[in-house]
Amino acid sequence: MGGTIGGVGSPQTLSEADRRIVASWAADCAERVLGLFETAAPRDSRPRDAIARTRAFARGELDVAEEIRHRFRGGAAAREVSDPAAVAAARAAGQAASIPHMGAHALGAAAYAAKAAGLAAPDRPDAVNDEIRWQLRQMSPPVRVALQQLPPVGENRTGPLGPGLLASGLLGTIILDLQVGLANPGPSAPRRPRSQRTTPRPG
Fold it and tell me: How far apart are CA 108 and CA 93, in angstroms?
């Protein structure tokens, strides 16, 4: 069941218990590409700190209100680097850190992580799909159940999955693939026709 934002219910919020469940998975996704950011900015610990706080939130060590106040720190590091893969990796950490606010950010973290993986391997056309498959394999049954409560990307305007950045371009395609994968019993990412695949672009 979704929570409320300013007294208005949103299916993208998820319950506090479900946000803690998906936070651990999102932290795993973001941490997988963290090295791309740290190679570009080895002295900037904000994304690593954001992932650590996300894990602490998942363990129940930090409360929702406190983490909502901290949620922008990890993503802000993206403005300090120019390498596109590093930017996407920092944004993955920032999305993970925003899960205490809305559970839908878990899919945003995964999408940015997969985008980062693709940008880091331009010679591997399947790099993004490979990362999506890995992300689907890492989902525990409770994570899958929680994420299945989220509305389809691009259809609900009350959170980050609504029409806008996460619903457009490669990010939207990745989230769509994740949501299709959630509905299928197998762990593999759905294989779209080649004409429908999106090549990662900087930014």
Answer: 10
- The type of residue at 16 is E
Examine residue 160 and state whether it is found in any structural domain, yes or no: yes
Distant-in-sequence, close-in-space partners of 67: CB < 8 Å, separation ≥ 6 = 53, 57, 97, 100, 101
Q: Which two tokens stand for residue 30?
A: 């973001």
Nearest CA among 149, 181, 178 for reference residue 166: 178
User: Is 202 contained in some domain?
Assistant: no
Per-residue pLDDT tens digits for 23-54: 999 999 999 999 999 999 999 999 999 999 99
Residues spanned by the domain of 137: 4-196
Q: End-to-end CA distance of the chain: give it in Å, rounded.
A: 34
Number of domains in the chain: 1
Q: Please report whether residue 103 resides in a domain.
A: yes
Q: Does 201 reside within a domain? A: no
- Answer positive or negative: Cα dihedral of 184, 187, 192, 193: negative
pLDDT at 5 over 70: no
| Cα angle 194-179-168, degrees, rounded to a multiple of 5 | 65
Closest CA to 81 of 44, 114, 109, 27: 44
